[in-house]
Amino acid sequence: MAFPRACGILVHPTSFPGRYGIGCLGREAHTFLDWLQQAGQTLWQICPLGPTGFGDSPYQCFSAFAGNPLLVDLEPLVAQGLLERGELDAAPTFPSNRVDYGPVIIWKTATLQRVFERFAAGNDAALRLHFQQFCLEQAEWLDDFALFMALKDAHGGAPWTTWEPELVRRDPDAIERWTERLQADIERRRFDQFLFFEQWGELRAYAHERAIRIIGDVPIFVAHDSADVWAHPQLFFLTDQGEPTVVAGVPPDYFSNTGQRWGNPLYRWDVLERTQFAWWIARFRAVLHLVDIIRVDHFRGFEAYWEVLASEPTALNGKWVKTPGKKLFRAVQKALGELPIIAEDLGIITNEVTALRKAFEFPGMRVLQFAFGGNAEHEYLPHNYESDSVVYTGTHDNDTTIGWYRTEEERVRDRVRRYLWCDGSQVNWDFIRAACMSVANTALVPLQDALSLGSEARLNFPGKPEGNWSWRFEEGALRAEIAARLRGLAEIYGRIPAKKKEKPK
């Protein structure tokens, strides 16, 4: 699918400022969209929106379909009579520049519990009817997810493979018995999702009013400890006890000499193919209800994935296994129409991966931070781009451009200065300009680069088990002069869509 020439900003909602310890979908998110419009940006890219599990990573969610309740804005719940102002005024003091997940999760979960209790005890017929309609429309995934989370809570947060054997194998009598026992908690989980989807829908509509499209992220793999794997074990390589026999990862790469052992269970593509890829179609359909464009993470895994035995401690010893990627995308395209997909084609890319991407006209990615370690033929250097590309100064997995430049060897920094004809004093803006002036139809910049921040603002460090995903920008950081500078680049390099001329009456 061909994308119009445009530019945008990459920032996850958890990074927004605010009083309650973590970014949310409220005032600060709307302020950000206003700033984007002022800056001439028509794209906003986010990470996955699901409820986070291990390491607080949005790429290790308890569901590929659910939203993260931690992102729910609490302020409008006061006006709805579901919270009291004093309860918000009494919130703990949280850090303003990072998410301290432990305390935030404890406080916000308890607060949302009170919200649900007031809803359950109230008599707002319109709200109740709206909630019931939501539950009916989303039942295909919502029922399993709500039960999974209630069961997880009842078992002290333990992985589902450690639950009673009848729950591990989803014995119908046990499911019925536990569903009745945990009914109130199940209903609360549904209500959390209702709040999230209501608020996200309002925020997305606000973005569309400002001609801003949202780019969402679909990780190829799902977390083992998730409702997806528990509810659909037949789709994964698992033992009878539900443990993975093989797991996902990548061989040695830019980030690690022993590769990255992600640990996600691998799909049984033969089973998926026999169902005409119904689970994947449902997943893409759900994401397209939330965003306008999908960035498919680890696209190369749809041509072949790196399989590692679950017993291996690293990803060093593994093998490439082919997947029916072309059949999958044909099935999804047949069911949903033309797919607005960006292919994250980083890593070890073969001719077969490129052929798969081009067969469906998915634009690929180019990352400027990866461009300066080789010669003039390096495919990530702007003069080698094709127009159906998406250029990034860096991604959520990279250091900020300033942090990267400061720690790179002098040979690389010298190439940067000579290639961009700069002195390196504002290397982040030199990168932003290079991205905007390139022929790539889409140019995206992590917000940290636009704010001229260093390594202290890095969002994620692949292979580091903790301390990631916590960066937040401070109130007032979205300054008008930064917006003006971004708009200037968007205008001079033709990345602001021309306004349609009105026909004379």
In brief:
This protein has 505 residues and is an alpha/beta fold. Helix content is 40%, strand content 11%.
Descriptive report:
With 505 residues, the chain is α/β, with parallel strands linked by helices. Helix content is 40%, strand content 11%. It has 19 helices and twelve strands. The protein has helices spanning 27-38, 75-79, 85-89, 101-121, 125-137, 139-154, 165-168, 172-181, 183-209, 227-231, 269-274, 278-288, 325-336, 351-359, 401-407, 410-420, 427-437, 447-450, 480-492; strands spanning 6-10, 43-45, 213-219, 246-250, 260-265, 293-297, 304-309, 319-322, 341-343, 364-367, 389-392, 442-446. The strands form two sheets. An eight-stranded parallel beta sheet has the order 9-6-3-2-1-12-11-10. A four-stranded antiparallel beta sheet has the order 5-4-7-8, with no helix packed on it. The longest helix is centred in the middle third of the chain and has 27 residues, at 183-209.
